[in-house]
């Protein structure tokens, strides 16, 4: 389009759109957007997709409103017809994912103002979206190609303010103070979120996607089942033009900096030496992939395809922390994906999506001499399989000018399989940090013939089936949106520890007279013990989730839109036999949003949102509670070590000699399956979060805009397994672990097994009762759960104009409470909904800064085009450190530990430190209180990325090479530290506060693309 035509088109678009048009967003879960605005009554507005020829026409209503919804993302030409004649030149309009592009047409087809638009190539882009009530960051594949962003959806999400990496021990990302297990991910409207733990999702290559939305709050009622954030991605599609290309990505190990080694030598409070070693400087990682894609018409203007195949090869090597073993992993997997788009007519479309992220990794473990880098005898091999096949079929129909319908059916599959030839023959043996000094003196030999020290034998398959209907109906100043969906989520999983005994053995240093978790005392003369843990579970489990919603997007005045919505959810978690054991329905989520175009010209917006969001129960709860769980611990004296021969490889190793058993088998963690009335509270309420957002955004000029945003979130309840050792019938004699709402009333079945004279339902108000202290016999309750998040965000943005772009944000936030959510990052415990928050009343006594509380976040990103050959990009993140908590193991007037006196990770811990008479009787101990963050803050972390792109300066040849460097300054600051302050009352852990995880070292990536 020439300059004159472009100016003419620009004059036909008002970013200063009066808010007389309808919806702020459309079908945010789908891969569509909308065009809306005002014209004269009876005007006909026709839009045509420039890539596919899809044409839609709508007639402006009596009040001048018009709307074209459910449009595929892309570029369109818009033509106004008035009184049967075309008015002005066609304008170029871009439709973004999940948004509404405003086009208001004056009496002669001219625009109201030109000051509020930004001309970019052949498109006109609204810089202030006066229709949106969401907090959202949208990034296209073209923008990502200009910046150093790692090629995964999580890295895209981290560009948005308020999104940070979670505990690196189990990964994931945190949105707005939430835990890593509260987010949702959609690909073309298909929910691909892991429903077993909610900490991961199905993936596809970057080159498969067209655009990403990162929703950090305020999303409307078609969204649910998330109290964190949402990643919404749309894949590429075909057009009327045949296109194809290849892309190569290289990440050689030679371009990767060495990780730092760390060694901590400390002394515990009882004089015992404690050491921890983290050797990583020999670790290697080489990765490359190549993809080929093609797209085009099968039938011009009607049927289009996009297809991609990608081959990925990775070779990885790493030592264990001690540097005594060398593990190799090799993967050679292919991804395939396809998209078909069929425009049956201009008003009816079908979309078919299919892709597979199945993959397999071969692993091997050998002995290793760290000083000489010599790889020794092979210990064993194993194979891990993951991923699955996914697909969806979507129909979109336009019925008249005012009614749109969408129907989708989809399937999302994933698997997690792990197997080794040593599984039937070899048990796993772990060396606790308390035994490190002895183990080091032994020369740190291999202590097991199993190649893995911690992985269970797993056979896991997940399948989600989704059915969804969505409708839009325009009635004057109202846009009515309504719909329903159903998800059936099935987990087929069995796990066990390898070895003939089915036990995993852990070796600890011990002090005679110390109390073990089973209540027994370490015998005299015993300075080391072995704990054997047997854990077996499995079955097929189904959960269904149903929802329906209704929303009225009401144009109250030309400048004010109200978004009034309600969503009703229902969750049904079932046992292996198909019976319901957790069923919650009629979960009502009201949502209210507004957007006010303050000046009436689209340059200044004030918006707000109030809403409630419910979180479903994960399938790991079905698996652990509704299928039965054997989780037993047996303690033995260590009677030394003896040489043994690996039955798989023939190499030698040392195995522990089990001495006399100490005390009874601790079976308190077993969960029976025959009767769940004591396993799940009858009064169970779903977990929800309330949210309030107020935002302001303003144009500075055609390129620049700025905004400020305030967010408040509160999660006033929790659902987890909670220790109950006292009921209205009296002391139980052991601990029950029902899934319940801590701090609320819990109703379970009472019988003689737990001390009741007669059978029947009993209710415990866990804010006042439920736990009886050992020794004193005092009955107490649990502290009411609470989590709040407060944030103030400032952002300034400069749009890309084919020369440069820039975005900067600063976020101040405070995340406080007495529980993080369904996982516990303080103790690295990631079994969603079954963490140690409520294992003891002392675990959650303190309200303070939570693990994901980073008070200050600074994020910068930008790109600059020097000329047609060279361009540059950069990203920078500065993040203040999270709190350091110091967990004790006991609290006043209780002989029962608030955390394990044996293992560092078992039990949640307390916020009390014993300071006097700690060796004496429990009633003589004196304590000092140490709340969350008592240990201060971890240091700030900084991450700078940079890239340079070379483009072949030959017309007609699209060849580019992009070199990106991540963590350019090679910062390797600590990002996770040990939080256990005591190992016994008054006995400090010398390793408290030492690091366990650090930033990944610098690495480089070369991407070569050739499109033709």
Automatic annotation (TrEMBL):
Superkingdom as given in the UniProt entry: Bacteria
Membrane topology type: Multi-pass membrane protein
Recorded GO CC terms: cell outer membrane
Family (UniProt): Belongs to the TonB-dependent receptor family.
Protein name stated in the entry: Energy transducer TonB
Record Gene3D superfamilies: Carboxypeptidase-like, regulatory domain, TonB-dependent receptor, beta-barrel domain, TonB-dependent receptor, plug domain
GO molecular function: carbohydrate binding; siderophore uptake transmembrane transporter activity
Keyword terms, alphabetized: Cell outer membrane, Membrane, Signal, Transmembrane, Transmembrane beta strand, Transport
BP terms from Gene Ontology: siderophore transmembrane transport
Domain TonB-dependent receptor plug: 133-230
Protein localization: Cell outer membrane
Organism: Stenotrophomonas daejeonensis
Domain TonB-dependent transporter Oar-like beta-barrel: 321-569, 583-888
Signal peptide: 1-28
